[in-house]
Write a structure and sequence with these properties.
Elements (H helix, E strand, L loop, with lengths): L2 H5 L3 H9 L5 H19 L2 E4 L1 H15 L14 E5 L26 H8 L3 E6 L19 E2 L2 E5 L5 H8 L5 E6 L5 H7 L2 E4 L19 E6 L2 H11 L17 H6 L7 E4 L2 E2 L3 E2 L2 H16 L3 E4 L8 H8 L2 H5 L8 H10 L4 H20 L6 E5 L16 H11 L4 H6 L3 E9 L2 E9 L4 H14 L12
Parallel strand pairs: 2-3, 9-12, 9-13
Antiparallel strand pairs: 1-3, 4-5, 6-8, 7-8, 7-14, 10-11, 13-15, 14-15
Helix pairs in contact: 3-4, 6-7, 11-14
InterPro entries: Amidase, Amidase_CS, Amidase_dom, AS_sf
Family: Belongs to the amidase family.
Protein name: Amidase
């Protein structure tokens, strides 16, 4: 294989190549660092590249291979990856998309980062995020925007836009992201890759107890369902003090992705989401095409969608509190976040708890919809990817309604805590369009099995943007 082929080899296979000593951790890390050095100036995927730390780690692992039984190695030993810049990695800067904080070095690893290190990953750096992760496009002031590898004029999505662009462009095979309202699924759809928003309690938020009353979670992005499933396996699980958690799945998510058959399922699908209306034609067609494929695979498809309109106001009330919670001075924030900060500061503690209660009551109705269905197929966004800067120049008052409408299919399932997988579903004018499959609470296995079945029937792994070749 040439270096480009190696860079686009799935992470699971990279780990196997390392075990069989066909490639060393150092060689693989060097391939990715060279690609990052060459392509990141165009893509804006990484805020921080930790080349020295990554090379030192890769060298140590390469030496370890000479004295260690490979049967005893962790599953992703020597495989390079990246961490979203909202999360702390010891000895590495974290700015959360605030340019003034680019030199702020963290002294600890968050729980999800510890799990990644224990799984054997080598961390290449910190990927770009929208400022404080608050926007579904990644264009923080004073920092390069994350651009779509399929067309640099378009957004890579957000807030995990850097991670998605990196995976799509072959700067790493899998990457860490987080999702508080679509922030894994949206960039996955924009960039033509796979992203999983896990169930509430699947992945720890240690050292925090939770994030935003449970609407946010960490999760994986990758080019294959199996890679994202395997990544989810290694970052999942209870860490002491977690306020809620889920048991370890049996079989593992990787086993489900590679061997399990979903059986005949009853699946709802929708392209019209009241009160937001009908998705734009490319997003509608992606859902309809996927529904037809699922029906051809033996599943029962039926039009349906839970009512989500009442959720908008309480969800925004809870979600916008992430801005004051950050503790970052208002003068360092972009106009949108300053505006959200002002709105959040008008909400009393009682009103906040009222919003949490309302969100939970409405979420019960959303989950009850799944009493009659095994899964729900929806667009990820209500329209295809926007251009870089398309909404950034608008006033917050003008941009915010557009944002709410664009991400409408995602946020309800952050509120309900249900798992969702975003998968590629074709292209519109050369830019990817994706769909999402939502599962019952705690049931990632069903949506992973469905995603793998769709992938086998309509493969996307060989799709590569011209930029990276």
């Amino acid at each position: 294989m040439n270096k480009t082929d190696i860079a686009f080899t799935p992470a699971i296979q990279q780990a196997q190549l390392i075990r069989t000593r066909e490639i060393s951790p150092l060689e693989l890390t060097q391939i990715y660092l060279e690609r990052i050095d060459r392509l990141n100036p165009q893509l804006g995927s990484f805020f921080t590249v930790t080349a020295e730390l990554a090379l030192a780690d890769a060298k140590a692992k390469t030496e370890q291979l000479t004295t260690t039984n490979t049967d005893n190695l962790p599953p992703f030993f020597g495989v390079p990856t990246a961490v979203k810049d909202l999360n702390a990695v010891a000895g590495v800067p974290r700015c959360c998309g605030v340019a003034a904080l680019r030199q702020k070095v963290e002294q600890y690893d968050e729980g999800v980062v510890l799990r990644m290190k224990q799984a054997g990953f080598t961390i290449l750096g910190k990927t770009a995020t929208s400022q404080l992760g608050s926007l579904p496009y990644t264009e923080p002031p004073g920092l390069p925007p994350a651009r779509n590898p399929w067309n640099l004029d378009y957004t890579a999505g957000g807030s995990s836009g850097g991670a998605a662009a990196a995976v799509a462009a072959g700067l790493c095979a899998v990457a860490h992201g987080s999702d508080g309202g679509g922030s894994i699924r949206i960039p996955a759809a924009c960039c033509g890759i796979v992203g999983i928003k896990p169930s509430r309690g699947r992945v720890s938020y240690a050292p925090l107890g939770d994030c935003l009353s449970g609407i946010a979670t960490n999760g994986p992005l990758g080019r294959t369902v199996a890679d994202t499933a395997a990544f989810l396996d290694v970052i999942s699980g209870y860490i002491t003090g977690d306020p809620y958690w889920l048991p370890t799945p049996k079989p593992s998510f990787l086993e489900v992705a590679t061997a399990a058959k979903p059986g005949k399922l009853r699946i709802a699908f929708a392209t019209n989401i009241p009160p937001f209306g009908e998705a734009a034609l490319p997003c509608k067609q992606a859902v309809e095409k996927t529904a037809a494929l699922l029906e051809s695979l033996g599943h029962s498809l039926e039009v349906g969608c839970p009512a989500v309109g009442d959720l908008i106001e309480p969800f925004i009330t809870v979600w916008q509190t992430s801005i004051p919670f950050s503790g970052i001075p208002p003068q360092l924030l972009e106009p949108m976040n300053q505006w959200l900060l002002e709105k959040a500061n008008t909400v009393s503690s009682g009103k906040y708890l009222e919003a949490v209660a309302a969100m939970q009551i409405i979420s019960r109705r959303i989950v009850a919809f799944f009493d009659n269905f095994d899964a729900l197929l929806l667009p990820v966004t209500m329209q295809p990817p926007i251009r870089v800067g398309e909404w950034g120049a608008l006033s917050p008052e003008d941009a915010f309604p557009k944002i709410v409408n664009w991400v409408a299919p995602c946020a309800p399932f952050n509120a309900s805590g249900q798992p969702s997988i975003a998968i590629p579903a074709g292209f519109n004018a050369g830019v990817p369009v994706g769909v999402q499959i939502v599962g019952r609470p705690g049931d990632e296995s069903t949506i992973i099995a469905l995603g793998a079945q769709i992938e086998a029937a309509s493969p996307w792994m060989d799709n590569q943007p011209d930029l990276i070749v």
